[in-house]
Each structure stands twice: as structure tokens, then as C-alpha cells.
Amino acid sequence: MRVFWGALSTSVSPRGLVDSYVVNAYAMKLSKDVKDKVYFLKTWVGIGVEETYQEATKKSFAFANDARPLHKYDLLYFPALYKHHWFVLVVDLNDKSFVFLDSIYGEEDNFYKEVPDLMIPRFIHAWTNFGYTGVDFWDFKVKYPVVPKQTNNRDCGIFAMKCMELWNPRVQMKDLIRPQDIHNIRKQIARDLLLSKHNSTRESIELVYNFNETKHGLYAGQARPFLGICPMKLCFHFF
């Protein structure tokens, strides 16, 4: 998994729209850091224009299943981008529920008149089609926990990443995320990615502390108010 500095700089800058590669990198980091959750993300390496969505989905399920069988996890997290809007679907295997975490829309909004009917049957089809059995998802409830609402149309990706990180059935998200904190949360996400033990590009970590705008270029200048981000490649290599 590689994230270029331009994508990271744009994603964490004030009012920046979060790039899908950044969401993927954050999901991968969380997958390595947290053991009782599993995060599904598209495995970009090797994917070309000829690959079907089914093949990409199969790779995503295989990646998530690599550590242990999927039915032995408590929570399965799916960051989703639909109509230019990020939200998170959580499959809670213990509580037998599909949980939608959304910083704009709620159960009564038109957005959720169609999203569950799009995602849930496709998830069930993928689960059974790829050989996973033993769970009757048709009996699951659909839930919409209260999530703090964003105050603009550009923060949904930030809220989605924090929901992936923080949500579980016992927490109140309103106590963990406040809209006025999003500016600092953007910085925190960048720091978490850059300084993660899973970031194998040591030079990028050094550049956080030894920033030179002239040497490190355009994106470094744009992101300097945040971290001194530089136009290198942020690489996550997992073994």
C-alpha cells in the first residue's frame, strides 16, 4: 500500500476531500493495530482496468480473512464511498446487526432509502459466494447510531476514518468526536499514518522532523502549516 504525498497533503489539509488511498492506508493501519476488528479495503496492487468488481471484492475478503476466519471476528468494518460521500458500514456479528455510521445522513434521509438495499444483499452474496457460511444475515437488524454531524460538505472522509477507529456498540460517538475538533483530527490522522510502526519508508518519518520547504517542494509547502509534509511516497509494507 502506497500513498503519495500529494494525496495525503490534500486529504488532511483544511477542508480537503479525503482520497480513497488515504482511507485504505488508515484501514490497513487499523487492521494491524486492532485485533478484534477487521477492516475491508480494496487491494489496489495488481488491479487493472480489466479486473471486475467481483474479483476486487474477492481479494478484499481474502485480505480480511488472512489473519483468522471472518466469522470469528466481532466487528467487520466497510468504509464506503457513494455519491461522493464517505460513510461506514459495520457488520456486528455478535449483536446480529448491520450498522451505518454517517456524519451527514440518518435513517429518515433519502440516502438511506437506497443504500441498505444496495449494500446488504451484495455483502451477503459476497459472503456466501466466496465460501463463508454459518451466519444467517437475513435475520440481522439495521441500525443507525447517533454520529456527530459535520458542519460542511468536505469532512465526511475524516468522520468515516474516526468512526472506523473508535466505534463499537458500547460507545457514544458524540463523546469522542466533536465537529470543532476536526481541524486537529486531520493533523492527528496524518501523524498516525506517518509515524506508524507500519510505515516502512523511514525517510518520510525523518522529513517530518527535518523539513525543508525549498528541498521538498510544492506539497510540502502546502502542508507545512500542518506537519511539514513532503512529496515523497508514504509506504506501508506488511509482512
Write a structural description.
The chain is α/β, with parallel strands linked by helices. The chain has a single domain, classed as Adenoviral Proteinase, Chain A (Adenoviral Proteinase, Chain), CATH 3.40.395.10. It has 9 helices and 7 strands; from the N terminus they run βααβαβββαβαααααβ. The protein has helices at residues 5-12, 20-33, 53-64, 111-129, 156-166, 182-194, 202-209, 213-216, 218-223; strands at 2-4, 37-39, 75-82, 85-92, 97-101, 141-143, 233-235. The strands form 2 sheets. A 5-stranded mixed beta sheet has the order 2-3-4-5-6, with helices on one face. Strand 4 (85-92) and strand 5 (97-101) form a beta hairpin. Helix 2 packs parallel to helix 5 (156-166). Mean pLDDT is 81; it is low at 43-47 and 218-239.
List the helices and strands and how they pair.
Layout: E1 2-4, H1 5-12, H2 20-33, E2 37-39, H3 53-64, E3 75-82, E4 85-92, E5 97-101, H4 111-129, E6 141-143, H5 156-166, H6 182-194, H7 202-209, H8 213-216, H9 218-223, E7 233-235
Main beta sheet strand tally, sense and closure? 5 strands, mixed
CATH class descriptor: Alpha Beta
Overall pLDDT score: 81
Please name the CATH architecture.
3-Layer(aba) Sandwich
CATH topology: Adenoviral Proteinase, Chain
Number of helices: 9
SSE series: EHHEHEEEHEHHHHHE
Number of domains: 1
Q: Can you tell me the overall shape?
A: globular
Fraction of residues in helix: 25-40%
- Which strand-content bin applies to the residues? 5-15%
Distance between the termini: 12 Å
Radius of gyration (CA) equals 18 Å
Q: Tally of extended strands?
A: 7
Which sequence of strands runs across the widest sheet?
2-3-4-5-6
Structural class: alpha/beta
CATH homologous superfamily grouping: Adenoviral Proteinase, Chain A
| pLDDT < 50 runs, ≥5 residues | 43-47, 218-239
Q: Kindly report the oligomeric state of this protein.
A: single chain
